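Dear support,

Our group has been running a series of protein-ligand predictions, and this particular one with zinc ion is the one our PI (initials K.S.) wants archived with full inputs and outputs. We had some confusion internally about which version of the output was final, so please treat the block below as the authoritative record. The input we submitted was:
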Amino acid sequence: MLDADHAHRRSVAVSPAASETPHPSRAEAEAAVRTLIRWAGDEPTREGLLATPARVVRAYEEWFAGYRCDPASLLSRTFEEVGGYAEPVLLRDIPLQSTCEHHMAAIRGVVHIAYLPNHRVVGISKLARLVEAFGRRLQIQERLTVEIADTLARVLQPRGVAVVVQARHECLSSRGVRQHGVSMLTRRLLGEFALEPQRREILAALAG
Ligand SMILES: Nc1nc2c(ncn2[C@@H]2O[C@H](COP(=O)(O)OP(=O)(O)OP(=O)(O)O)[C@@H](O)[C@H]2O)c(=O)[nH]1
Ligand SMILES: [Zn+2]
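Confirmed final output from the archive:
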């Protein structure tokens, strides 16, 4: 029977982001958390912190679940009976939860996605799952934006793709320059959406 570590390791191995170095064991990951607690100035053996390393490692499994997911396969089921629908499909305000790869601090925001179907559409939940698959990794916002847009373009082969990401970075607010209320906006427009006047129209529609 596979234990959770083994299953985790095996699934991570299929991730394009996985390296060739052996995946650390759960015990090693928990030991690393104990080191960070000591680095922060506290004592990992006190009662309130005893179960914390195990909790943090479980939390990491959720925050970084994207490494165990193949984003392209999320879009494999499509529907062709769309009654001739050939207008853009827009999904606004998809929640984004990610982690900044420079400081491992939270990135929180929303993603707006539009695509111009080429005879087939994808279930709308799959667009939200795509955001999760790339969001739940160590990211910079620019690459996240490109990865979402390019995967949609490659797998669905629509006539156009537009992705807008608006997010706040905790590394900007809770440390460093400590700038609160700043949000970062990134976007990627492909195919017909990269051309005027469609570009202006789709950006206005995504902005709501
Ligand atoms: N372009 C981009 N920068 C990001 C993102 N997330 C964090 N950063 C920035 O990455 C930079 C890392 O800069 P460094 O100078 O190496 O690190 P640092 O000394 O911790 O920087 P400060 O945050 O300015 O204290 C910082 O300017 C962050 O604001 C992102 O998604 N995209
Ligand atoms: Zn950061």
